[in-house]
Amino acid sequence: MSRRNKVAVFLIVILGLAIFGYSLRDVKLNILIRDFASIHLDWLLIAVLCMILYFGLEGLVVKIFVDERMGHYSFKSAIRIPLIEQLFNGITPFSSGGQPAQLIAMLQSGIDGGRASSVLLMKFIVYQAMIVINFIIALVIGFHYMVSKMSYLSLFVVFGFLIHFGVIIGLLLVMFWPQFTKKAVRVILSPMRWFGKAERMNDMLTRLDTKIDLFYEESVQLLGQRKLLLKVALVTFLQLMAYYLVPYFIMLSLGYTQANIVMITCLHVLIVMVISIFPIPGGAGGAEYSFTVLFGSYITNSSKLVVAMLLWRILTYYFGIFAGIGALAIKPDQLKPHKRLPEHDDE
C-alpha cells in the first residue's frame, strides 16, 4: 500500500470521526452508552454476517468467471478482489479506484491482463444490471415515502439512477453495436482536440478502439454461455440482497422488531443510489444525512437513530476498508490454467 493511499485512509477515518462527532453533538453520553449496552448482539451478528456474505458472494462471482474461462482460481485469491475493491472504492472520489486495484490484484495471481480486464468488465455489467433492477423495484415501493419526507433528496435519487442507467446503456452499446460506439466516442471526445496534440488524441482513440473490440469479443462469448450468465446474475442478486438487508437487522438489534423488511430494504437501495453521486469518497456526509432523514420516522428515539447510523456506516463502509487493508497483506495463490489434452497424430 503506497504512502498516498495510507494518507487517504487516514483522512477518510478522520473525516468519519468528525462526522460521527457532529452527529453525537446533541446526544448525552450516558444515554448513548445505555443504548449501546442494550443492543441485541444476535441480530447485530446477523448484520455482520450479511456483509461477510456480500464480500464472499462477490468473490464467488470472480471465481466462477475465472474457473470457467481460464483455470482453477482459489477462493482465497478470489475473495481478495472484492475486498481490495472496497478499499480503493472507499478512498477515491466516485469510487474510481476500485477497478484498477482489482486488475492489479488479479495480475498478482498470474492472470493475463486482457483476460483479467474482460472478467472485471463482465462482473461490472452484471453488477450494474442487478443494481438497476433492484432500484426500479425499490423506486416503485419506496419513492413516495422519500418524496413525502424530503422531496429534494428524491432528485438525487433520480439523478443517481440516470447515471447507473446511462452506464448500462453504454455497456450494452459496446456489446451489441461496437461500430456505433466507436463513432460516438469520437464525437464525445472531439472537443479534446482543441486542448491537446493530435498524435496523443489518435493514440488514445486507438487504445479505446482496441478495448471496445476486446470487450465486444468477450461479451459475445459470455452471451453464448447463458447458464454461466444466469448463475452469475443470481449470485450477484443474492449478494446485493445481503447488503441491502443490513439496516433491517441493525434495527432489530436496537429493538425495533416491527420494522417492515420490504420498506427498510427499499429505502436502503435508494440511499445507496444517493451515495453514488457524491464526489467525496464513500459519500461522506451525504450518506449519514440520508440515513438519518429516511429512517428517522422508523427510529423515533434520536439517540438510537444515531447509534443505528453509526453501526450502519461502520459495517457498510469502514468494515470493507479495513478488510481490504488486510487483503493487501495476503499473498494470493497463482492461477492453475486448464490442462489441455495432448493432440494425437492421425495414423
From TrEMBL:
InterPro entries: L-PG_synthase/AglD (IPR022791)
Role played: Catalyzes the transfer of a lysyl group from L-lysyl-tRNA(Lys) to membrane-bound phosphatidylglycerol (PG), which produces lysylphosphatidylglycerol (LPG), a major component of the bacterial membrane with a positive net charge. LPG synthesis contributes to bacterial virulence as it is involved in the resistance mechanism against cationic antimicrobial peptides (CAMP) produces by the host's immune system (defensins, cathelicidins) and by the competing microorganisms.
Gene Ontology cellular-component terms listed: plasma membrane
Organism this protein belongs to: Secundilactobacillus similis DSM 23365 = JCM 2765
BP-aspect Gene Ontology terms: lipid metabolic process; response to antibiotic
Keyword Lipid metabolism among record annotations: yes
Keywords on record: Antibiotic resistance, Cell membrane, Lipid metabolism, Membrane, Transferase, Transmembrane, Transmembrane helix
Cellular location(s): Cell membrane
Protein name (record): Phosphatidylglycerol lysyltransferase
EC number(s) recorded for this UniProt protein: 2.3.2.3
Enzyme class, spelled out: transferase
Pfam family, one: LPG_synthase_TM
Name of the gene: mprF
Catalysed reactions, as listed in the record: L-lysyl-tRNA(Lys) + a 1,2-diacyl-sn-glycero-3-phospho-(1'-sn-glycerol) = a 1,2-diacyl-sn-glycero-3-phospho-1'-(3'-O-L-lysyl)-sn-glycerol + tRNA(Lys)
Family membership: Belongs to the LPG synthase family.
